[in-house]
Amino acid sequence: MRDAYHEELDSISDSLVEMARLAGSAIGRATTAMLDADLKLAESVIAADEKVDDLQRDLETKAIQLLARQQPVATDLRIVVTSLRMSADLERSGDLAQHVAKVARLRFPDSPVPRDLQATLLEMGQLAQRLMAKAAEVIITKDVDTALQLEHDDDKMDDLHRTLFQHLMDDRWKHGIETAVDVTLLGRYYERFADHAVSVARRVVYLVTGDYVDELTEGGAPAGAAPASSPSGTDSTEPAEGA
């Protein structure tokens, strides 16, 4: 009986890893669709988000059944509760990748991104994909040091986001209001995608230490956290109208 119980816990973790990998792949493919004005690829990203949603629903069902049947405590309870929260972050990450693809679909046959900003958006997309790959690694390894590094990596995304706004606010902007709205939304989608990857890492730190904090500190330990002996949000941003 206990073997089956732990297999179910492992299955929940496996679902989280799969969700993270699907979200990372989606943001990479959505970026390509956006920059290359690839309608077929954009449509495939939009359709594939259903798989992430299915995984979340299945995970929630498993978690609720475990809570009802096994009444887990201590570390096992943290695993179940934290997994539910991580699944919400990962589901939302899939939605954000879908939003990028919807902007690409809306502006087809053109790219929504002017040439002088394509390098910046490409870098944001590549960084988002790397952050989510690292989040998947953190889920597997429960490595607090890797979680800490992910938080630092997110600083680069914030820098790129600011760069976009500098272009938008420049008096020399010549691409019109519609493009400005598209770029603003896209920048927000990537920035929020990265935030969800960081949130996953923070929740793993909570799983390991028993303390959840808003910011990680140097040395791999959360501020104010005493390491345990063993490991154990919805955004308001939506795609442009008609996307």
Write the layout of secondary structure elements.
Blueprint: H1 2-36, H2 39-70, H3 74-107, H4 115-141, H5 144-169, H6 176-209
In brief:
By secondary structure, the protein is mostly helical. The chain is 77% helix and 0% strand.
Keywords:
243 residues, mainly alpha
Structural notes for this entry:
By secondary structure, the protein is an all-alpha fold. The chain contains six helices and no strands. It has helices at residues 2-36, 39-70, 74-107, 115-141, 144-169, 176-209. Helix 1 (2-36) runs antiparallel to helix 4 and helix 4 packs parallel to helix 6.
Q: What percentage of residues falls in helices of 4 or more residues? A: over 70%
What's the total number of strands?
0
Continuous helix count? 6
End-to-end CA span: 49 Å
- Going by helix content, strand content and strand pairing, the class is mainly alpha
Low-confidence blocks of residues:
216-234
Average pLDDT level? 86
Main pleated-sheet profile: none
How large is the radius of gyration?
19 Å
* Global geometry: elongated
N-to-C series of helices and strands? HHHHHH
Range of strand content: under 5%
